[in-house]
Specification:
The protein has 11 helices and 16 strands. α7 packs across α9.
Length: 376
């Protein structure tokens, strides 16, 4: 599970930006929390904000970070990766360079827990060169890099008889993972598994524009496994949606139904013991009751270690019955056109506040508000 993600100078996010999944001290909705060795983590994070505020860029930033690591570890191909469903993110991997609009180095770091280990990894990019980098496992430094100097941590330094540092303009991840006899192989395998198998990017609204569904997104393909089909039908029945192979294969399903089935397919593929699903504009084409149901599949007590991070415009969900104050975040542009994010907990919103009403009135940020024109 992700503990935090920090980045700077990614498109409109010029400032040091923190997405914090560590739970606050609030007592509401304890079921929405997953236990962690260093405190509880949020199972869901909903991100609101006006158009062009930077919500999509925020999800893309996490995708860029994951793609960077996948490429360094050598399992970037086959292309596109099987667990990256959105063509948008395939383009991110294909381009694979930091924004040319950035006037300063791109910095990113993430802390996460997986298979009993706590990891923290970060890097700074200047064009194609990694200028700063570090990698921690359970608080122990495995390596750090400054400029072109790569220095192994004390826990692995004794493996090198002569040199305790190396020169490289690339990432130290490839160097570290090339040593198959390291004593921390179990931890390194867990690190690689997280980025290879435990992070899924759910398709955005572009994929669900009217079009014939075929290939990996076809109903036939999504229901090809008997166990998965039973899982999907069980939830479709709970939502009072068509839940038989005959009904779904008779004609092309409605866009919202198809998206619901694809979401349940992603949830099925996320391992019960850990995984993260990210979605841009997750609630597009979905009835609020369906969105609420799908979100609560993550928030419920039966889920112990899976997270859902998504952007949305659906204010029907923005209420204290659906989210804790630290589970609802707002992205807005400041006076200089830079994106900034904060949660309702950051701005000390009262528990009994009307989240949606206050959001639409502009209380949580600079949202467009129109006044009726005076009648002439």
């Amino acid at each position: 599970m992700i503990i935090f993600f920090r980045f700077q100078n990614y498109y409109s996010f010029r400032h040091n930006t923190l997405i914090n999944l560590q739970a606050g001290i609030y007592k509401e909705h304890p079921d929405h929390l997953a236990k962690n060795s260093k405190g509880n983590l949020l199972k869901t994070l909903a991100i609101y904000g006006p158009n062009s505020s930077g919500k999509t860029r925020l999800i893309e930033a996490i995708a860029f970070f994951c793609c960077f690591i996948r490429r360094q570890l050598g399992f970037f191909f086959p292309f596109p990766p099987e667990n990256c469903l959105n063509p948008q993110f395939s383009l991110i991997q294909e381009a694979f360079h930091y924004p040319e609009t950035s006037l300063a180095p791109l910095s990113m770091s993430m802390a996460f827990s997986h298979c009993g280990f706590q990891f923290e990894y970060g890097f700074t990019l200047e064009h194609s060169s990694v200028t700063e980098e570090y990698f921690l496992c359970d608080g122990t430094l495995l390596f750090q890099k400054s400029g072109e100097t790569l220095t192994p941590g004390k826990s692995v330094r004794n493996l090198f008889k002569k040199n305790t540092f190396f020169k490289t303009s690339g990432s130290g991840l490839a160097f570290l993972f090339s040593w198959s006899f390291l004593p921390c192989q179990e931890a390194l395998s867990a690190f690689a598994d997280f980025f290879q198998n435990r992070i899924l990017f759910f398709p955005n609204r572009i994929l669900f524009l009217p079009q014939p569904f075929s290939g990996p997104f076809s109903i036939r393909e999504l229901l090809s496994q008997e166990e998965k089909k039973r899982f999907i039908f069980r939830h479709l029945k709970a939502l009072d949606l068509p839940c038989s192979s005959q009904a779904l294969s008779a004609s092309s399903p409605a866009t919202g139904l198809h998206k619901t089935i694809l979401f349940l397919d992603c949830l099925f593929r996320l391992p019960p013991h850990g995984g993260v699903l990210l979605s841009d504009d997750f609630t597009a084409f979905l009835h609020p009751n369906i969105s609420q149901y799908l979100i609560r599949l993550f928030q419920g007590p039966e889920n112990h270690s899976r997270q859902l991070i998504f952007t949305t415009h659906d204010t029907a969900l923005l209420n204290r019955k659906q989210f804790r104050r630290d589970e609802a975040a707002m992205v807005n542009l400041d006076s200089k056109g830079c994106s900034r994010i904060h949660t309702l907990a950051d701005i000390h919103i009262r528990f009994d506040a009307s989240f949606a009403k206050d959001y639409l009135s502009g209380k949580y940020g600079n949202l467009p508000i129109w006044e009726e024109e005076e009648q002439s």
